[in-house]
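Re: the request from the purification team.
They wanted to know what the chain is likely to look like in 3D before they choose a buffer screen. I agreed to run a prediction and write the result into the notebook, where they can find it.
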Amino acid sequence: MIEATNKTVMHSYPGMVALITVSHQDQINIMAAGWHTYISYEPPIYGVAIGRERHTYQLMKDAGSFAVNFVPFEKAEWIQQAGVYSGANVDKYQSADIGFIKGSATNSPILKDAYVAYECETIDINTYGDHDWFAAKIILFYRDHDKFLENGLPNFEELAIPLYIGRSLYTKVDKDSKIISLKIEEH
């Protein structure tokens, strides 16, 4: 039975974790972000929460741009490493052998193994508690067309999507997942 508690209850997982990449001057970095979402479809705006103590935070603030990358389940270890190690101490691209190209719009790294990526220009930063929310206009989209069906949905014969459960645990949505269709008519 559900009951009230005075302790913080954080239930935002399982969920997709994005790999946020940034390039500023001669530095590049990558970090895992569990708190992110589309904010607007038209114009396309994406948001991500970044802790102010993170190495990526100042790079994103100074660059005024970043990229959001989504990688398949086979690369879940990249998500974990990008979330545990600090770019102030480790070259995460080199240590995990993460290949990338420079984004053509922002110069932010676009991961070669990503199935979707967005290049973003920051339009607003707001402070909420211990994180700042970066809202950004998506200025360039990337997609691995082989990983999607004609209707735009993931092709789970070709793609397994990692979901972070918490405590360094992951699961996946793939061809063996139970998927149901729920169609409800409007009244």
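For the purification team: The first helix runs from residue 55 to 63.
Please add any questions underneath this entry.
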